[in-house]
């Protein structure tokens, strides 16, 4: 019975879906387990993941058992498993830094973060918590734009000597200086910014690749996204958006036959629509020229529940990180990062990233 002991920073909607999923797949067999890319990754099943520590800064989450905190407001993702057993893991107060954006104060508490009154934790306390809990991997789910906070927690992971899965777009795995720090300590890292199972990014990439393979010249494209969760509310502060836009745009640019002029490509979170909650809607348009320079265009609308869509990938990223720990591999895990993340250090088309990741899991890569 090998287990994977993880710590989570940011007990928001994505963490909720991940933890619900770990519970949901208990008692299932590979044949009736719907919604997974892999039932087993190197012998690890979804339910082999144990969350042993968690950090947040919200009054309604800090101090509560993780099994309750994941359902506390402002979390609003769908509940597909309400029988999450008590974990005996209280959510601990983290360090706020730039995790909270002031523009949120203008919204109802039910829809936004509310900072807890507890004293903020120091780096030494968080490192001690990570060590005491014997966590092996820190999974990062902080809000977009939390540059300082992400670096603070990445430092904690380095100091505690544990792996890091960076699910959001502050660049750590794809920043050579940070990647080097993980490499030097022999600690595996997967990042940055998780690519959902069937989300706007992978669909846009696959369609762009299709245009290229079918000889259609893509001339202009947009991808507009709306949602009503705190991720979208947070991103109303445009000053926090730079790395998210870069991550999403580069994910598409990198698979084009010819990069588009920046005026011809528009990709990003577009608006916050409160009643949408965790439902994300993507409007995608691609304009091109086919045989004889004849124009064509494609319009697509994708509607998905945002957080389970990302958890279905995070559950594999965590297991790949654990495989690296088992095998004594440190530094950036290039193949899993390319397949699971929007902004990996090495961008390759998704088919190739998939093949490389399968090889990694079999032990034939990055060993
Ligand atoms: N849903 C997806 O498909 C998807 C895809 C790619 C990336 N992401 C990214 O993953 C991240 C998490 O998404 P989410 O929907 O769970 O967000 P969320 O807003 O639901 O959760 C963020 C959590 O972080 C907490 N937090 C804020 N500052 C903190 C700090 N300093 N220390 C500890 N906790 C802090 C908040 O209280 C909240 O609980 C976001 O950056 C999002 O952009 C999500």
From TrEMBL:
One GO molecular function term of this record is: inositol-3-phosphate synthase activity
Q: Which domain of life is it from?
A: Archaea
Q: Which InterPro entries match?
A: MIPS (IPR052199), Myo-inos-1-P_Synthase (IPR002587), Myo-inos-1-P_Synthase_GAPDH (IPR013021), NAD(P)-bd_dom_sf (IPR036291)
Myo-inositol-1-phosphate synthase GAPDH-like domain span: 199-307
What PANTHER family does the record point to? INOSITOL-3-PHOSPHATE SYNTHASE
The record's family statement is: Belongs to the myo-inositol 1-phosphate synthase family.
What is the protein name stated in its UniProt record?
Answer: Inositol-3-phosphate synthase
């Amino acid at each position: 019975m090998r287990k994977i002991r993880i710590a989570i920073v940011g007990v928001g909607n994505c963490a909720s879906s991940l933890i619900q999923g770990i519970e949901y797949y208990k008692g299932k067999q590979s044949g009736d387990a719907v919604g997974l890319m892999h039932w087993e990754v190197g012998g690890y099943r979804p339910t082999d993941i144990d969350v042993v520590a968690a950090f947040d800064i919200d009054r309604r989450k800090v101090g509560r058992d993780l099994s309750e905190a994941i359902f506390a407001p402002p979390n609003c993702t769908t509940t597909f498993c309400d029988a999450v057993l008590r974990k005996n893991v209280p959510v601990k107060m983290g360090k706020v830094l730039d995790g909270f954006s002031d523009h949120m104060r203008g919204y109802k508490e039910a829809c936004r973060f509310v900072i807890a009154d507890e004293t903020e934790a120091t780096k030494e306390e968080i490192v001690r918590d990570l060590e005491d809990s014997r966590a092996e991997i820190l999974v990062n789910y902080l809000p977009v734009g939390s540059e300082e906070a992400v670096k603070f927690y990445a430092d904690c992971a380095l100091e505690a000597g544990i792996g890091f899965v960076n699910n959001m777009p502050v660049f750590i795995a794809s920043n050579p200086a940070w990647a080097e720090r993980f490499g030097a300590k022999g600690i595996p890292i997967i990042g940055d910014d998780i690519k959902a199972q069937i989300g706007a990014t992978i669909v846009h990439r696959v369609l762009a690749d299709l245009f290229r393979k079918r000889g259609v010249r893509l001339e202009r494209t947009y991808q507009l996204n709306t949602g009503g969760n705190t991720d979208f509310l947070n991103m109303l502060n445009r000053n926090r958006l730079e790395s998210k836009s870069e991550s999403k745009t580069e994910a598409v640019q990198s698979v084009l036959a010819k990069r588009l002029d920046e005026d011809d490509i528009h990709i990003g979170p577009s608006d916050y629509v409160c009643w949408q909650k965790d439902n994300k809607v993507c409007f995608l348009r691609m304009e091109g020229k086919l045989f004889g320079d004849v124009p064509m265009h494609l319009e697509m609308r994708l509607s998905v529940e945002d957080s389970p869509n990302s958890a279905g990938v995070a559950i594999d990223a965590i297991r790949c990180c654990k495989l690296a720990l088992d095998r004594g591999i440190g530094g950036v895990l290039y193949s899993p990062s390319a397949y699971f993340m929007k902004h990996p250090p090495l961008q390759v088309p998704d088919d190739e990233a998939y093949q490389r990741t399968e090889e990694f899991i079999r032990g034939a890569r990055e060993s």
